[in-house]
Design brief:
Elements lengths: L1 H12 L6 H22 L3 H20 L3 H21 L1 H12 L21 H16 L4 E5 L6 H4 L3 E6 L2 H8 L9 E5 L2 E7 L15 H12 L3 E5 L6 E5 L2 E6 L1 H31 L1
Parallel strand pairs: 1-3
Antiparallel strand pairs: 1-5, 2-4, 3-4, 5-6, 6-7
Helix pairs in contact: 6-8, 6-10
Catalytic activity: 2 ATP = 3',3'-c-di-AMP + 2 diphosphate
GO biological process, one term: cAMP biosynthetic process
GO molecular function, one term: diadenylate cyclase activity
């Protein structure tokens, strides 16, 4: 009898073996929970979590005191509650899925298509954009310029008027000049061409954005949250130049800082295509 009791005592205090897959599973769960909480903090879900915690505490209370009627109601309406939450958080869930799709987890491991080794836009285009922004900043002409990368901006282009003109400082300044037909809205640049003007962009609902920023800045941040584009904003009130990228706003940049940001964007594509070019050649040789 004592031997059996000792066996159960040992079983109770025995530390289970940990496999490498268990550690990997813990890391994956921790990673997912961290990013879900990070996403929730900048959305309406953060305030709803407090309500969820109160409801969960109430359910535990009902479970502890065996309040069967309440537990039956919760059990039967659980699926309905989940559906309602999904409907309420539909914009946030869509944004989260779009961000997940932009991560390009497999693009660095697999190379599809025949990509050419080239820069995203020319040095002339870069200089023309900087010159236009500096000139508009001096006279406090409001501007909103979106520069496309890999993510298509076709849905935003369709909200504006097609231009399809070579990027020049004169063209950009004339578009955003006060009381001109195209000055209201955003300009979209793809490569070395202005493809569309007077485009409507999604406004960011990030609660951390300062109240001093207006609709133009919120639109610039908003499109950078749902696409991989870089947006340049010239304030009509202060004349200051800001850059929005990946949901972050770089305020009050000067011409040198703006040029550096555009250089990074320009060379990023060149470096990526350069790597893919040699990786593809290496696979062919094998």
């Amino acid at each position: 009898m004592e031997t059996v009791q000792q066996f159960f005592d040992l079983e109770a205090f025995r530390i289970p073996s940990v496999r490498p897959t268990d550690i990997l599973e813990i890391l994956i769960i921790a990673f997912l929970v961290y990013h879900v909480l990070l996403w929730a903090k900048n959305s309406r879900l953060w305030s709803m979590l407090k309500g969820v915690i109160v409801i969960m505490a109430f359910i535990l209370f009902a479970e502890f005191f065996q309040m069967n009627t309440i537990l039956w109601i919760v059990g039967n309406f659980f699926n309905v509650i989940i559906t309602v939450v999904v409907i309420i958080l539909q914009p946030e869930l869509r944004k989260a899925l779009e961000e997940l799709g932009r991560k390009n987890f497999f693009s660095n491991a697999f190379f599809f298509g025949d990509m050419k080794f080239q820069e995203r836009f020319s040095d002339k285009t870069l200089n023309e954009i900087v010159r236009a922004c500096v000139e508009m900043s001096k006279v406090r002409t409001g501007a909103l310029i979106v520069i496309q990368q890999d993510f298509s901006l076709a849905e935003f282009e369709r909200t504006g008027i097609a231009v399809d003109g070579i990027v020049t400082s004169q063209l950009l300044i004339n578009i955003f000049e006060h009381n001109t037909p195209l000055h209201d809205g955003a300009v979209i640049i793809r490569g070395d061409r202005v493809v569309s003007a007077t485009c409507y962009l999604p406004l960011s609902d990030n609660m951390g954005i300062g109240k001093e920023l207006g609709t133009r800045h919120r639109a610039g941040i908003g499109v950078s949250e749902v696409t991989d584009s870089l947006t340049i904003i010239v304030s009509e009130e202060t004349g200051k130049i800001s850059v929005a990228y990946e949901g972050e706003l770089d305020k009050s940049v000067d011409s040198d800082r703006l040029r550096d940001r555009l250089k990074v964007l320009q060379n990023k594509h060149a470096e990526e295509t350069h790597i893919k070019h040699f990786a593809r050649k290496a696979r062919v040789k094998r």
